[in-house]
Write a structure and sequence with these properties.
The chain has 7 helices and 13 strands. The protein has 273 residues and is α+β, with helices and mostly antiparallel strands. Helix 1 runs antiparallel to helix 2. It is globular, with a radius of gyration of 18 Å. Bound molecules: adenosine-2'-monophosphate (2AM) and calcium ion (CA).
Length: 273
Amino acid sequence: MSLPTPLINVMDAAARKAARRLVRDFGEVEQLQVSRKGPGDFVTEADRRTETILFEELSKARPGFGFLMEESGVHGGESASERWIVDPIDGTTNFLHGIPHFAISIGVEREGGLVAGIVYEPVRDELFWAEKNQGAYLNRRRLRVSERTNLADALLATGIPFGDRIGKKSFMAMLNAVMQKTSGVRRLGSAALDLAYVAAGRYEGFWETGLSPWDVAGGIVVVREAGGMVSEIDGRSDMLYGNSILAANQQLYDPLRKLLMDAVRTEGVKLTE
Ligand code: 2AM
Ligand code: CA
């Protein structure tokens, strides 16, 4: 057991404060499902309000840090060497439909590298957190990625591209390969929680294309500190600003990466197609 670091305490407090209101809003969203107009506008408002609370709390605690936020973009701290990368609701579509699987995600970038992150799931009160070189935790319990070594036993998470998102062709190729070789694929709709669950050993791996920095910033450090590997699917290391992400336990990272890359090569498609 370890005590959270000062930086983790700041994120923990901000996320819990924002989450209290968010959980009340979620209750309201469940009621609104039956209305014809649906809860769309209400959810947009809840999203903005959550981001505002996070912004206020984080800037109060660390006035020198900059921000990259999903709703309001980049602000503050032009000369700052540190910034928060914030997703107020990751899993917005779940939230909108009254499905209780969403999270607040916050990452800390220092001089271009990720140094700490949290993913907070308010409905189950699960706080996944990690700071570089300090280990990863779920609430007060130390986290380790799973020890499973066979692809055939592996449970994987992914996201399915939709609308105008990139990667539909490559997704079909990769899914086709993964379906045959693993024990199953889940698509729960929150990339931040997918990463947190890899760190917790619930999934052996997670892959997705077309995500944004705020979807993954909080979870990447948590996976690494839990002993997992994270990169782009083609092996490059710009998961934050690049086009794809693959996270897995140590033993399955290489076989999974090979499986995914062979699948897109065989189909003759690019990861972004
Ligand atoms: P969001 O809930 O914050 O939008 C699901 O595949 C994942 O994709 C979620 O983490 C979701 O984050 C993210 N995502 C990224 N871009 C998206 C988009 N344009 N629309 C919906 N989800 C998106
Ligand atoms: Ca998101």
